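Chain A, query sequence.
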Amino acid sequence: MDSVLIRYHEIALKKGNRAYFTELLKRNILTAVKDLGAKEIRSLPARLLLTFKNQVPSETISQRISAVFGVANFSIVERTAKDIEALRSGILAALDGLRFDSFRVETQRGDKTFPLTSPEINRQLGGAVKEKSGARVDLTHPEFTVTVEVLPHDAFFGFDKIAGAGGLPVGASGRLVSLISGGFDSPVASYRMMQRGCRLIFVHFHGAPYQDKTSQEKVRDLVRSLTRRQYQSRLYLVPFGEIQRQIVAAVARPLRVVLYRRMMLRIAEVIARNEKAKALLTGESLGQVASQTLDNIAVIQQAALLPILRPLVGMDKQEIIDQARRIGTFETSSIPDQDCCQLFVPKHPATKAQFREVEDAETSFDVKELVRLGLDNAVKEDFSFPVN
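Chain A, predicted structure.
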């Protein structure tokens, strides 16, 4: 089988903009498999057909296509003539060597002029499969599924539907700057916004020169993992230790965490405007730590003019960790590191900071100079997938 029949769901609801979304999805799919020898991708009614020049392992195809946002599900398929006998002979030949105890046949008849209805196709092909395999029919929980698609010019069959990542194609919803740490939250937040069609630029604040490079290495690994979803990524590594030291030297303990976060937003906002991003993204979850109380969030966000998106704001920690496991960032995020959020942190930070109090504190140091310090010393790195 050298073809993949790809189905989308949310894109189909876009009506007048559907062509834009499908073309973007097609480009993303071709990028995801560009090193596998793709032949072409073309549009069929409510589907896409991807073909390869040579045989590619099914496991490799599944790994690549299942990670593409915008794909609802897909099947690795073989094309046949639009004829019940051609379908029967093709399916029986492809079953050689396969063993299963239960099965079902699932047909979608996109061409309503085909002389058999979907249930009739299921019965005829199911009878042939049952006779060859000896397996029983189970329409509810089958071990094995034969998928059949009858379209205006071709028919296809495959075995099993594989779940896709859903959502919208990356690039459909504009650019964001993601403030990414080495923890669990911000990679999950980044994933969720990629799933909504956003392309992300990453900014990581690290504790150099007062901490080692473990957080930087972790974030590089996390960005590599997330780049499998958007294919091109840019990461800004911003040394934040000296900025924190100067704030510590000028401000009393309780407000320091709030001031750190406000400085991060200011630096990230400049990067966002340079990258033509429309908003900032954080992994904040309401009440999880001192800087994420409602009072502190309100004060911190006033340091930036761009919108700040918080897709995890209503999630608890276990929900976030569970999703980190599902998307493949959990293991990396679990590695201990020296995070700048742990540097110069008071034992009892303020949980209900007042805006006027914070403004007064910021007169104790040169805000613009600290922003410039962070930007001037930032290091920019680019990532791609598949790796060239």
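The chain has a mean pLDDT of 93. The longest strand covers residues 73-80.
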